[in-house]
Design brief:
Keywords: Chloroplast, Plastid, Ribonucleoprotein, Ribosomal protein. It comes from Hydrangea serrata. It is found in: Plastid, Chloroplast. The structure is a single chain. This protein is mainly β. It has a domain of about 45 residues: Ribosomal protein L33 (Rubrerythrin, domain 2), CATH 2.20.28.120. The protein has 1 helix and 4 strands, in the order βαβββ. A 4-stranded antiparallel sheet has the order 2-1-4-3. It is elongated and about 40 Å long.
Amino acid sequence: MAKGKDVRVTVILQCTSCVRNGVNKASTGISRYITQKNRHNTPNRLELRKFCPYCHKHTIHGEIKK
């Protein structure tokens, strides 16, 4: 029997400070991480502190739509 929806889904985390301030002129790109979350335990959007190589510091990375 097949399940309707998977409990564990793949999400993309994107740096919020790079998006808000624009990326530094010297570097190109936005920091993104791919991870998984359990839909039952975390129904809201996921936010984690991760290292951003473009900002050169730890910043909040928020879940984005695919």
